[in-house]
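tmp note - HTH gntR-type domain-containing protein
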Amino acid sequence: MLQFQKTAISAEDEAYLHLQREIRLGHYAPGQRLVPDVVATEIGTSRMPVRGALRRLASEGLVEIRANRGAVVRGLNHQEMLEVFEMRSVLEGLAMRNAVLHMNAEHVRRLTNMLEQLDQGSSDYLDWTSAHREFHEYLCSFCQQPRLLRQISELHSVVEPYMRLWAAQPGRVLRVRESHQELIDALQTRDPARCEAAMRQHVLNTVPALQAFLEKKG
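out:
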């Protein structure tokens, strides 16, 4: 069997996906240094692809390149957190406005099933945060606007570590079914303007509780 050597691009992609996943899952904490030699050893590659991956992550806001410390996992202050959610509300509102034009009853039924699993904490999902993100990304995917979807995905990745901490807190009570059912109800009207407004409000509704949790934690 022929064996093909990894290209620099595929090695960089591997390093990028590894680092992005570890940051999203909260395994690399805000402020933690990301040493290229250490990361390269973890995934069995050289430093150069890791350095390229770190530059990509820096452009997405997940990593900060500092003069004296190298690459550091970037945290968000409360104002930046608000900014990300405001951006999400606008972009996901636009995505839902355009998505409804390309969705049928079967797509809405799938969202309803996903909501059932999200509400029940079904073992079919890795965790609540992943299930929540999957619901949003499936809904938005019907907008058929790849550039818009990439922007939304990057914003989700930036806040995901904080969402995980929030979702895992003892005694957490979320309006999972009610708040997401409002999105499904809006889709069933097939009114683009109503869909956009529903998603905008849905995203912004998360902000007060999340910020209160972060203030209490920090």
